[in-house]
Design a protein that fits this description.
Elements (H helix, E strand, L loop, with lengths): L2 H26 L6 H13 L3 H11 L7 H32 L4 H26 L8 E3 L12 H7 L6 H23 L6 H7 L5 E3 L1 H16 L10 H15 L6 H18 L1
Antiparallel strand pairs: 1-2
């Protein structure tokens, strides 16, 4: 065999080996449309701050029972409840703005209605997903500490004082409100309601374990908070308000008695009594 032929054979062998490695690498990657693919996509969009895409990917994971369900379900609960609360916070600020700025009250109310519409969709998704939470084991929080800040959103204060921002700034206000609400929801779910630093430390591993009672109490609190979306002065849907309150009470039955659970139960009973009046 000539030297030229040997060189050609060597090059051919190298190319074949390279293609084999690429092929093996590609086969190891999650295939599009699989739970593994969607769970990985949820991580990417979450880290990028695109929470809407995150819950879409998690929804795809939860469309079937699979190896990622146990990790995706608590994540979906925290995300959907937090996003709902963020939209509720924006709507409340817009309500205050409509009273402070009578000249633009119609626009404030229109935007508040849109925000509550978004909150309604997310709240219903949250309540339906919570019904799937089963078992007695600790709950896994398979995601890192979220972006955002626990402090009040200054743009919401501005809106509440009657300043209607441009569309882009209003969108930013919504994003910041959602980020804050998700962050606070994560802290509650991790058992660190008033200690973001503690929650951040706990979630460093991306696979934190929290007592089920701690997580369920946080979800009961979220169910009650979102029941207030349906009061007479907001969406005025008393049947939904009662359903959320009842589910919150049922969740509390899974939690050991404490001052916090007793206080929450009193709030729920008061809300139900007010709805009957």
């Amino acid at each position: 065999m000539t030297a030229m032929a040997k060189r050609r054979m060597a090059v051919g062998l190298i190319l074949a080996a390279t293609l084999a490695l690429v092929s093996c690498s590609g086969n190891n990657a999650p295939q599009p449309g699989t739970p593994a693919f969607y769970f990985g996509a949820a991580k990417e969009t979450y880290n990028a701050g695109d929470y809407q895409k995150t819950i879409e990917h998690l929804g795809n994971v939860l469309s079937s029972e699979n190896e990622y369900t146990a990790r995706a379900l608590p994540w979906m609960l925290v995300m959907s409840s937090g996003m709902a609360q963020g939209n509720m916070d924006l709507a409340d600020a817009l309500d205050r703005g409509s009273k402070a700025n009578r000249g633009q009250s119609n626009e404030f109310r229109r935007q508040a209605t849109a925000a509550r519409g978004a909150a309604n969709s997310l709240s219903l998704q949250f309540a339906d997903t919570f019904a799937k939470l089963q078992g007695k084991d600790d709950v896994t929080l398979a995601f890192p500490y979220p972006t955002g800040s626990p402090t009040e959103v200054l743009l919401l204060t501005k809106i509440g004082n009657g300043v209607m921002p441009p569309a882009a700034e209003l969108e930013t206000a919504q994003k910041r409100a959602i980020e804050r609400a998700v962050l606070l929801g994560v802290c509650r779910a991790a058992g660190a309601q008033d200690d973001p630093g503690k929650a951040q430390d706990l979630l460093k591993t991306g696979d934190a374990k929290v007592p089920r009672a701690t997580f369920v109490y946080a979800m009961a609190k979220a169910l009650f908070d979102e029941s207030q979306l349906y009061t007479r002065d907001k969406l005025d849907q008393p049947d939904k308000m009662k359903i959320f309150c009842t589910r919150a009470q049922d969740a509390l039955k899974q939690v050991p008695a404490s001052k916090d659970s007793a206080d929450l139960d009193k709030k729920i009973q008061a809300a139900l009594k007010k709805a009957k009046a």
